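Anyone else keep sequences and structure tokens together like this?

Example one:
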Amino acid sequence: MFSYFKTATAGILTVISLSFAQDVTLTIDGTSLNYESTADISGFQFDHDGCAQGASGGDAAANGFTISTSATTVLAFSFSGSVIPAGSGTLIDLGGECSTLSDFVFAGEGGSSLDVYLLDDCPSGVYD
């Protein structure tokens, strides 16, 4: 009986810890895509609804990232291998107010995948 309790407790604690383990948390404030990260960011990509075709600046530009935009996608990385250090700030200025951001792909050290979460705190509640 005690063994079952230990196994169940370990399982529950694992699920809880994985549920809250986000490497990068994103928020939108006006046209700013803000971040809090526990890991260095070596590149990122996300889709948008046409609102971020003019995305630029922020800590991505300050750390030497090349920022490419299209009608539906933003891609940013460094040719020199620089990173956005773990911490917080404005990742990028979206260039417009966005109602839909999705399909986040963030890379960390050595191209490792980072877990990303966009906080849904916008008034309209439309962010994906």
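And example two:
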Amino acid sequence: PASVPVQPSPNGSPSAPPALTETFTSAMHGLSVSYPAGWVTKAATEPWTTAEWSFEDPKVDIVHDPSLDDHLFLGLGSLPLAANSADQWIADRMAAYECSATEPVTVDGASGSICVDGALALVSTGGRGYMILAYTSGDEGWLDAVYDRTWFEKVLATVDLRPEDAVDPPPSATP
């Protein structure tokens, strides 16, 4: 379907974001999420193994508005927590994304944290850590007013976590 990007209204104030009517299911990360019609998906092709990721990273599922590409997207990933506690993994990730204030959040029954000043949620269940990011570029200033915390919470309410379906990276070789 053709993308119908949200644009600022003629009076300069942004219009509302489109409804979350489509569903993406990640074969790699063991989750599904709803997103607006017209957005496109780019499924991860490798398990997530690094601390950080970007729009082009093959280890991340990306759902985005094709008219805005990397200026507006959802990034989705999960990885086994291994020896890390869920609380420590969440604290480390929040620090890496320079999120200084968090609040508790529950996503599909899994507990975690949401960054108060950004659209980043981290939760854990089934021995996995899940990262859900809604990115808006500073280059498109109107995006933050439309794709705000309220919209992000609506996205989070659609997430279905399935840790048993996730693909883990192969064990590293020991010397």
